[in-house]
Design a protein that fits this description.
Elements lengths: L8 E3 L2 E3 L10 E3 L8 H4 L5 H27 L3 H9 L4 E6 L15 H15 L4 E6 L25 H18 L5 E4 L1
Parallel strand pairs: 3-4, 4-5, 5-6
Antiparallel strand pairs: 1-2
Amino acid sequence: MANGPGYLKVQGVDVVDPNGKKVILKGAATGGHLNMENFITGYPGHEHEMRLALLEVLGQEKYDFFFDKFLDYFFTEADAKLFASLGLNAIRIPINHRHFMDDEKPFEIKQDGFKLVDRVVELCAAEGIYTILDMHTFPGGQNQGWHSDSGLHRALLWENWDLQERGIKLWVEIAKHYEDNTWVGMLL
């Protein structure tokens, strides 16, 4: 993965590149891709509930096929090229924590999550587009909203130290993975 143009930083009220040149970030988001939000999908519920319903209807083999293709085709090289042609230089990637961890093995990081994000980061970097990782869901839910994919109407993350530790571990592993890639920023 390319290192990129160097880290952006804040200087006064401006974002600047390593040479001190002002950078204006203009962007969009890959909403609905790595965090399937119901206002995009039309499914009246949380992502994990939609996935369970599809698994029940399709069975494991067709379910795996569907999501492999969905995750692969949702954002392609053509999308990155389109965003670049529109003058965009930043793409926010909302991410569901379940791509990296699950409740059965809460402190084990799934490497497949990195493969999903790496692909989008690399496609964007090839077009000169920064990516901003947005952990849109956390174990237990960081808020009551459907987009946090907790399945509850209560933000348990703030009430449970174990859930907080899982979220911290995940962010630390993601930060380590991308620490040398200056095309990547993280939204906290």
